[in-house]
Amino acid sequence: MKKILFGILSLMFLSGCLNHQKYSLSFNYETGLIEKKYYDIRSQKGGKEKDYSLENDWELLKSKISKEFGSEYNADVIKPVKAEIYEENGVLCGKETFQVQLPKAFPSKSAIFEKIHGDNTQELDFKLINGEIYLFCGSKEVESTNGEILKTDKNNIVVWPEEQTVFEFTVNNNNIGGESLLPFYRKEKELNPAK
Predict the structure, then answer these.
(1) Would 3 be classed as within a structural domain?
(2) Is residue 101 part of a domain?
(3) 90: helix, strand or coil
(4) How many other C-beta atoms can be found within 10 angstroms of the C-beta atom of residue 17?
(5) pLDDT per residue over 134-178, tens digit each?
(6) Over the stretch 70-129, which tens digit does the pLDDT of each residue have?
(7) Is 1 within the bounds of a domain?
(8) Domain limits at 87?
(9) Does pTM top 0.90 for this prediction?
(10) How far apart are CA 151 and CA 149, in angstroms?
(11) With b meaning 16 or more CB within 10 Å and e meaning fewer, what string describes 31-53?
(12) What pLDDT, on the 0 to 100 scale, is given for residue 56?
């Protein structure tokens, strides 16, 4: 199984069932293309779950993502393009691609970031302040970015000039736990090699 729709994964991170080690975002303001990447997707029992199992989380993931990819956005504003899960460096990863239809129709570039992170599953906060775009990451370590990294005792912040057109960053979640869903992906790929 080469590719599976991946979209609603970000919503399920809210439930505490699924998590990931790293999250990356790339956004090109000129083309409107957005890529979200999730690295090392795992299942973890939530505090009040009584019927938790890895199998249930795998089936839930497949069910939700195949039916609801991009449904959190109005396709006239942010169009879902492609979603996939794949194996990379021995871990399960996912990638979502979206197209912002009219980037210049947004009041600011930070407003686009706020729209694509409106669910706040990544606990990232974007602000436009005095001609600069700020990404507040909290305690999440910024692994890479094409912006400037500022660190305080309690926060990691990325800053880009407002005129920047390509924005990229990768953050670590610092709290990876649970069990990998990679064995389920491999098994399904083995059973359905054409997908």
Answers:
(1) no
(2) yes
(3) coil
(4) 19
(5) 999 998 999 999 999 999 999 999 999 999 999 999 999 876 778
(6) 778 888 999 988 888 899 999 999 898 999 999 999 999 999 998 888 655 667 899 999
(7) no
(8) 9-191
(9) no
(10) 7
(11) ebbbbbbbbbbbbbbeeeeeeee
(12) 81
By residue count, the chain amounts to: 195
Burial class of residue 88 in the structure, from the number of CB atoms within 10 Å of its CB (0-12 exposed, 13-18 middle, 19+ buried): exposed
Is the model's pLDDT at 8 over the cut of 60? no
CA-only gyration radius of the chain, Å: 17
**Residues 148-173 as b or e (16 or more Cβ within 10 Å = b):** ebeeeeeebbbebeeeeeebbbbbbb
- The structural domain count of the chain equals 1
Q: Tokens at residue 33, please?
A: 């293309």
Residue 2 belongs to a domain = no
**Helix ranges, the chain (H):** 9-12, 54-68, 109-116, 182-191
Write out the two tokens for 17: 């069932």
